[in-house]
Specification:
This protein is of the alpha+beta class. The protein is built from 3 helices and 14 strands. Bound molecules: 2-oxoglutaric acid.
Length: about 240
């Protein structure tokens, strides 16, 4: 099955956008995705959610299950490592990381940091696509399973949420709460790359059904894992 997103995905930038630096290296661009890009991403996410590795709630090592539902592209994430195959789901290899998402990531880095050189060098190879229903939450954590400290690009579609950005030292206060709405871009890199962050609340009913998502919130984070495939037989 061809799960490639629609060809209109990720066109040229639309209107001028506002840039808000919420912490050093953490830049919020409200309404960065056009309505058309949001619709196309929703369609693409539906296809990605179907497999080869279907969307699921991740099991945690201590037996808990995350309330967020996740499907991965490029590399599969399970606590607390990446692999090419989803050994905690169905053992299948995850879908490849789409070139058009990499292009979108480069445009995001360029717009967030106003730095074309950094953007040109940005090569994301993994995406976590998260779906939050109205009651889902994500606790304070760091994105630290990557070997690279390249920025994380985060895109939001559907219901708004409260996004919490803390410090790099611990999961407690001080933190900064920001509302992420449909179409918003957040890039966190540099001094904020390893900042603890969380989604403590979804605001049900705030999304626009014209995106194709009638309820809930989608979030895509693009990452550079810094990992390479081991050649066949390596390490034996
Ligand atoms: O949903 C979000 O905005 C954040 C997602 C996140 O923190 C993650 O996938 O690690």
């Amino acid at each position: 099955m061809n799960t490639d997103p629609a060809p209109t995905l990720f066109g040229p930038p639309h209107a001028a956008y506002e840039r808000r630096e919420i912490a050093p290296g953490a830049v919020h661009l409200p309404g960065w995705l056009t309505p058309g890009e949001q619709r196309d991403l929703v369609t693409a996410c539906r296809a990605w959610a179907a497999g080869p590795v279907p969307i699921r709630r991740t099991r945690l090592p201590r037996g808990g299950v995350m309330s967020v539902q996740t499907v991965c592209l490029g590399w599969h994430w399970q606590p607390y490592a990446y692999s090419r195959t989803a050994d905690d789901v169905n053992g299948r290899r995850v879908a490849p990381f789409p070139a058009r998402l990499a292009d979108l990531g480069r445009r995001a880095v360029a717009d967030a940091y106003q730095d074309e050189e950094q953007a040109a060098a940005y090569e994301p190879d993994a995406a976590l696509v998260n779906f939050y229903d109205g009651t889902a939450r994500l606790g304070m954590h760091q994105d630290k399973d990557e070997r690279s400290l390249a920025p994380v690009v985060s895109l939001s579609i559907g219901d708004s949420c409260v996004f919490r950005l803390g410090t790099t030292e611990h999961r407690n206060r001080p933190w900064h709460d920001v509302t992420l709405a449909s179409g918003d871009l957040l890039v966190f890199g540099g001094p904020s790359r390893l900042a603890y962050h969380a989604v403590p609340k979804i605001l049900p009913g705030t999304g626009d059904p014209a995106t194709g998502l009638t309820r809930g919130r989608l979030n895509l984070t693009l990452r550079v894992t810094g990992l390479t495939d081991e050649p066949e037989g390596a390490g034996r």
